[in-house]
Amino acid sequence: MLKELQLSLLLVLLLVCVFFYQLNLKSGCVFLPSSKSQQDPEALLGQGHGIVFIETSERMEPTPLVSCAVESAAKIYPGQPVAFFMKGFHNTTRLPSNSTYPGFSLLSAIDNVFFFPLDMEKLFEDTPLLSWYTHINASVERNWLHVSSDASRLAIIWKFGGIYMDTDVISIRPIPEENFLAAQSSRYSSNGVFGFLPHHPFLWECMENFVEHYNSEIWGNQGPNLMTRMLRLWCKLGDFQEVSDLRCLNLSFLHPQRFYPISYQEWKRYYEVWDRDLSFNNSYALHLWNYMNKEGRAVVRGSNTLVENLCRKHCPRTYRVLIQGPEGSGTGTLGPGNK
């Protein structure tokens, strides 16, 4: 009788394990490892379900806007790893107290956020970008922080798969696509958000084109211009009809409303009083065009601007700790992200 009971319990346990395994596969989620230390990017991201951010400067402390972008992604994708590759971060880096690096500490405390060193030479191994990188003189390159970021995102998503986002992109709902580019406007692609499965040939050809047509003097030549010219080689682009996406071969070209409902010419609307008639029901995330913010506009507590409301809703920890300040007495500046 006892053996039969044990056998029944074992069978039930086995069925439960099978059920959760199948649920995990269907949902596209990744069960995260229990320990965040000593994680390897390939082991963590190799299934192609990660969310990736990059910092190509030596800056270690994420600004409030960067923190909001990462936190919002972790909140929208709770079962998926959110990887932040930082050039200034090393496995041996010893961080000062929380008072010195509050943004880093805040993000480190989120279960599905992981920090990795951005070692470009290692990253570009086995890609067309290695020969370019080893022969370039970064100290004399124009727009190097942006160009190196353009290259790094291509290599990371090609190697590991997943979704890349600029550090001024606030996530508001899950992106339901695997292989996609984000339209900035009709027939023009951005590279601020894109996603692919590992080793997708589109990204390999992008890296080849990156090297073949390299010109750092032209803004965006290795970024959105690259994505746009490669998309035109792959697909015969038409105009968007209403709020519907375009599909070509095995990739999707997502409508500008998905990430760019506010165009770069109108970026200041994010810092104006929130117009409640402005709907983002067709959007997956919002790109805040922080590269345009030369004036260093800040989110101000109690201002009821659109950006303040977005931060309060989609990155509440960042809003509470970094933007409101200690005991709710301060305000924070949305400093520059990668784009």
UniProtKB/TrEMBL annotation:
<dbReference type="GO" id="GO:0050680">
    <property type="term" value="P:negative regulation of epithelial cell proliferation"/>
</dbReference>
<keyword id="KW-0472">Membrane</keyword>
<keyword id="KW-0328">Glycosyltransferase</keyword>
<comment type="similarity">
    <text>Belongs to the glycosyltransferase 32 family.</text>
</comment>
<dbReference type="InterPro" id="IPR007577">
    <property type="entry name" value="GlycoTrfase_DXD_sugar-bd_CS"/>
</dbReference>
<dbReference type="InterPro" id="IPR051981">
    <property type="entry name" value="Glycosyltransf_32"/>
</dbReference>
<dbReference type="GO" id="GO:0008375">
    <property type="term" value="F:acetylglucosaminyltransferase activity"/>
</dbReference>
<feature type="domain" description="Alpha 1,4-glycosyltransferase">
    <location>
        <begin position="196"/>
        <end position="321"/>
    </location>
</feature>
<protein>
    <submittedName>
        <fullName>Alpha-1,4-N-acetylglucosaminyltransferase</fullName>
    </submittedName>
</protein>
<keyword id="KW-0333">Golgi apparatus</keyword>
<keyword id="KW-0808">Transferase</keyword>
<dbReference type="GO" id="GO:0050673">
    <property type="term" value="P:epithelial cell proliferation"/>
</dbReference>
<dbReference type="Pfam" id="PF04488">
    <property type="entry name" value="Gly_transf_sug"/>
</dbReference>
<dbReference type="GO" id="GO:0006493">
    <property type="term" value="P:protein O-linked glycosylation"/>
</dbReference>
<dbReference type="InterPro" id="IPR029044">
    <property type="entry name" value="Nucleotide-diphossugar_trans"/>
</dbReference>
<dbReference type="InterPro" id="IPR007652">
    <property type="entry name" value="A1-4-GlycosylTfrase_dom"/>
</dbReference>
<dbReference type="GO" id="GO:0000139">
    <property type="term" value="C:Golgi membrane"/>
</dbReference>
<dbReference type="Pfam" id="PF04572">
    <property type="entry name" value="Gb3_synth"/>
</dbReference>
